[in-house]
Protein backbone atom coordinates (compact mmCIF):
# COMPACT_ATOMS: atom_id res chain seq x y z
CA UNK A 1 0.00 0.00 0.00
CA UNK A 2 1.19 3.57 -0.66
CA UNK A 3 2.34 5.06 2.62
CA UNK A 4 2.07 8.80 2.02
CA UNK A 5 0.69 11.34 -0.41
CA UNK A 6 3.83 11.07 -2.54
CA UNK A 7 6.00 7.95 -2.48
CA UNK A 8 9.52 7.92 -3.91
CA UNK A 9 11.76 4.89 -4.44
CA UNK A 10 15.54 5.04 -5.02
CA UNK A 11 17.03 2.06 -6.89
CA UNK A 12 20.57 0.79 -7.50
CA UNK A 13 22.09 -2.69 -7.90
CA UNK A 14 22.89 -3.84 -4.37
CA UNK A 15 20.80 -1.36 -2.29
CA UNK A 16 23.80 -0.95 0.02
CA UNK A 17 25.85 1.93 -1.48
CA UNK A 18 24.10 4.47 -3.74
CA UNK A 19 20.34 4.11 -3.22
CA UNK A 20 20.60 4.11 0.61
CA UNK A 21 22.39 7.46 0.34
CA UNK A 22 19.78 8.85 -2.06
CA UNK A 23 17.06 7.53 0.28
CA UNK A 24 18.60 9.17 3.36
CA UNK A 25 19.39 12.47 1.64
CA UNK A 26 15.94 12.94 0.07
CA UNK A 27 14.16 11.84 3.27
CA UNK A 28 16.11 14.50 5.21
CA UNK A 29 14.73 17.21 2.90
CA UNK A 30 11.02 16.27 2.96
CA UNK A 31 8.13 16.37 5.44
CA UNK A 32 7.57 12.74 6.45
CA UNK A 33 3.84 13.39 6.92
CA UNK A 34 3.48 13.96 3.19
CA UNK A 35 6.35 12.08 1.59
CA UNK A 36 7.56 8.50 1.98
CA UNK A 37 11.02 7.60 0.67
CA UNK A 38 12.42 4.08 0.39
CA UNK A 39 15.11 2.26 -1.61
CA UNK A 40 15.69 -1.11 -3.28
CA UNK A 41 18.25 -2.98 -5.37
CA UNK A 42 17.73 -4.81 -8.64
CA UNK A 43 19.98 -7.61 -7.29
CA UNK A 44 19.29 -9.82 -4.28
CA UNK A 45 22.89 -10.25 -3.05
CA UNK A 46 22.56 -8.01 0.00
CA UNK A 47 18.88 -8.40 0.98
CA UNK A 48 18.44 -7.78 4.72
CA UNK A 49 21.85 -6.13 5.11
CA UNK A 50 22.50 -2.60 6.40
CA UNK A 51 24.17 -0.09 4.05
CA UNK A 52 27.89 -0.42 3.26
CA UNK A 53 30.00 1.08 6.11
CA UNK A 54 31.42 3.65 3.65
CA UNK A 55 27.90 4.91 2.79
CA UNK A 56 27.05 5.02 6.50
CA UNK A 57 30.24 7.03 7.14
CA UNK A 58 29.75 9.59 4.37
CA UNK A 59 26.10 10.10 5.35
CA UNK A 60 27.08 10.55 9.00
CA UNK A 61 29.73 13.10 8.01
CA UNK A 62 26.90 15.14 6.46
CA UNK A 63 24.56 14.68 9.46
CA UNK A 64 22.37 11.88 8.07
CA UNK A 65 21.82 8.54 9.85
CA UNK A 66 21.16 5.63 7.47
CA UNK A 67 22.12 2.80 9.84
CA UNK A 68 18.51 1.61 10.27
CA UNK A 69 18.04 0.91 6.54
CA UNK A 70 17.96 -2.72 5.33
CA UNK A 71 18.42 -3.82 1.73
CA UNK A 72 15.46 -5.18 -0.25
CA UNK A 73 15.11 -6.34 -3.84
CA UNK A 74 13.09 -4.32 -6.33
CA UNK A 75 9.81 -6.04 -7.20
CA UNK A 76 6.83 -5.40 -9.49
CA UNK A 77 4.58 -4.25 -6.63
CA UNK A 78 6.88 -1.25 -6.18
CA UNK A 79 5.29 0.15 -9.35
CA UNK A 80 1.94 0.15 -7.55
CA UNK A 81 3.24 1.65 -4.33
CA UNK A 82 5.56 4.39 -5.61
CA UNK A 83 4.95 7.49 -7.71
CA UNK A 84 8.56 8.19 -8.67
CA UNK A 85 11.27 5.56 -9.14
CA UNK A 86 14.77 7.01 -9.50
CA UNK A 87 17.53 4.72 -10.73
CA UNK A 88 21.27 5.37 -10.46
CA UNK A 89 22.60 4.02 -13.77
CA UNK A 90 21.63 2.70 -17.17
CA UNK A 91 21.89 -0.93 -16.07
CA UNK A 92 19.45 -0.30 -13.20
CA UNK A 93 17.19 1.47 -15.70
CA UNK A 94 17.14 -1.49 -18.06
CA UNK A 95 16.56 -3.98 -15.23
CA UNK A 96 13.64 -1.99 -13.82
CA UNK A 97 12.17 -1.32 -17.28
CA UNK A 98 12.13 -5.07 -17.95
CA UNK A 99 9.67 -5.48 -15.08
CA UNK A 100 7.26 -2.75 -16.22
CA UNK A 101 3.76 -3.86 -17.22
CA UNK A 102 2.44 -0.75 -18.96
CA UNK A 103 3.10 2.91 -19.78
CA UNK A 104 2.00 4.00 -16.33
CA UNK A 105 4.82 1.91 -14.80
CA UNK A 106 7.31 3.10 -17.41
CA UNK A 107 6.67 6.79 -16.89
CA UNK A 108 7.53 6.50 -13.19
CA UNK A 109 11.12 5.44 -13.90
CA UNK A 110 14.01 7.84 -14.57
CA UNK A 111 17.74 8.22 -14.10
CA UNK A 112 18.19 10.39 -11.02
CA UNK A 113 20.85 12.61 -12.64
CA UNK A 114 18.36 13.63 -15.35
CA UNK A 115 17.14 16.01 -12.62
CA UNK A 116 20.52 17.76 -12.71
CA UNK A 117 21.33 17.50 -16.42
CA UNK A 118 18.27 16.62 -18.53
CA UNK A 119 18.82 14.36 -21.55
CA UNK A 120 22.48 13.72 -20.69
CA UNK A 121 21.84 10.13 -19.50
CA UNK A 122 24.42 10.67 -16.75
CA UNK A 123 25.00 7.87 -14.26
CA UNK A 124 25.83 7.76 -10.56
CA UNK A 125 28.99 5.59 -10.64
CA UNK A 126 29.03 2.39 -8.61
CA UNK A 127 31.50 3.12 -5.77
CA UNK A 128 31.53 -0.45 -4.35
CA UNK A 129 34.98 -1.47 -5.61
CA UNK A 130 36.61 1.95 -5.15
CA UNK A 131 37.88 3.94 -2.19
CA UNK A 132 36.26 6.41 0.17
CA UNK A 133 36.56 9.32 -2.29
CA UNK A 134 34.12 7.52 -4.58
CA UNK A 135 31.52 7.62 -1.84
CA UNK A 136 32.03 11.35 -1.24
CA UNK A 137 31.69 11.95 -4.98
CA UNK A 138 28.46 9.92 -5.06
CA UNK A 139 27.17 11.81 -2.01
CA UNK A 140 27.71 15.17 -3.71
CA UNK A 141 25.97 14.08 -6.91
CA UNK A 142 23.00 12.76 -4.95
CA UNK A 143 22.82 15.83 -2.73
CA UNK A 144 22.44 18.04 -5.80
CA UNK A 145 19.88 15.75 -7.44
CA UNK A 146 17.84 15.35 -4.23
CA UNK A 147 17.76 19.10 -3.63
CA UNK A 148 16.23 19.57 -7.07
CA UNK A 149 13.74 16.72 -6.51
CA UNK A 150 12.71 18.09 -3.10
CA UNK A 151 12.11 21.53 -4.61
CA UNK A 152 9.92 20.24 -7.41
CA UNK A 153 7.72 17.62 -5.75
P1 LIG B 1 25.11 -0.30 -5.04
O1 LIG B 1 26.60 -0.89 -5.08
O2 LIG B 1 24.42 -0.85 -6.27
O3 LIG B 1 25.33 1.17 -5.12
O4 LIG B 1 24.51 -0.77 -3.74
C1 LIG B 1 26.88 -2.25 -5.16
C2 LIG B 1 26.94 -3.00 -4.02
C3 LIG B 1 27.26 -4.35 -4.10
C4 LIG B 1 27.50 -4.92 -5.33
C5 LIG B 1 27.44 -4.16 -6.48
C6 LIG B 1 27.13 -2.82 -6.39
N1 LIG B 1 27.85 -6.30 -5.41
O5 LIG B 1 28.15 -6.76 -6.51
O6 LIG B 1 27.83 -7.00 -4.39
Largest sheet: 4 strands, parallel
Strand content: 5-15%
Q: Structural class of the helices, strands and pairings?
A: alpha/beta
**Cα-atom radius of gyration:** 14 Å
CATH architecture: 3-Layer(aba) Sandwich
**Cofactors and ligands:** 4-nitrophenyl phosphate
Identify the CATH homologous superfamily: Response regulator
Number of helices: 6
Number of domains: 1
Oligomer: single chain
Order of helices and strands: EHEHHEHHEH
Low-confidence sequence ranges: none
CATH topology name, in short, is Rossmann fold
DSSP strand count: 4
What attributes characterize this protein structure?
alpha/beta, Rossmann fold, globular
Describe it.
The chain has one domain: Response regulator (Rossmann fold). The longest helix has 21 residues, at 132-152. With 153 residues, the protein is of the alpha/beta class. The protein has helices spanning 18-29, 53-61, 77-81, 90-97, 103-106, 132-152; strands spanning 6-12, 35-41, 84-87, 109-111. It is built from 6 helices and 4 strands; from the N terminus they run βαβααβααβα. Strands 2-1-3-4 form a 4-stranded parallel sheet, with helices on both faces. Helix 1 (18-29) runs parallel beside helix 6 (132-152) and helix 2 (53-61) packs across helix 6 (132-152). 4-nitrophenyl phosphate (4NP) binds at residues 12-18, 41, 45, 126, 128.
